[in-house]
Amino acid sequence: MSGRKQFDVSAALDQAMRVFWQRGYADASLDALGAATGLGRGSLYGAFGNKDALFGQCLDRYASIYGAQYEQALAAHPGDPVRAVEAFFDVILGRIADPSVPVGCLIAQSAAQSLTLKEESGVHVRGLLDTQRQRVRAALADSSAAPRTLDELATFVIAVNQSLAVLSRAGTSDAELRSVTRLACTTVADTLARAASENVAQA
What we know:
The chain has one domain: Orthogonal Bundle (Tetracycline Repressor, domain 2), CATH 1.10.357. The chain is mainly alpha-helical. It is elongated and about 65 Å long. InterPro entries: DNA-bd_HTH_TetR-type_CS, Homeodomain-like_sf, HTH_TetR, Tet_transcr_reg_TetR-rel_C_sf. It comes from Streptomyces avermitilis. GO terms for molecular function: DNA binding. Keywords: DNA-binding, Transcription, Transcription regulation. This is TetR family transcriptional regulator.
């Protein structure tokens, strides 16, 4: 039997994810990652590859956890895109308010620090942001707005999502964050209503 110490790979990945989430890529040292996971550098490299490879796996882990919640929220109100966006923001606000996880958003923080990332990691982060945008775009499709308008609204919603992460790290209160999401949802509703009115006028 091998004398190598066994460890829970999933648990170690979750701990590493928290380090990147709390500190950002640049400040997540191998010492900090090792301390959080309980693994030496050799074990870290053996299990996950180098720091960039580990970071990529943590991004995917984060995206799988919250992506599933986003999809469920956005799909919960078929035919009502505004309510779908409200549900999407509810998931985000719930994560921000959860004391068991770091403040902010790993993807938003990584995007903000894109200049410190290797090219492959930067592409990875942008891809995850685009996946979020596509989810929102699909939920907005249950409307009569033109495709360009839906594209712009989806980008707007994701921009608000990213700003919520930044604001929460700066200590913005829950009440203020909810005010931001209410205004965002009003913007979505007004834009879709205006598009519907224009379609009727052109009919």
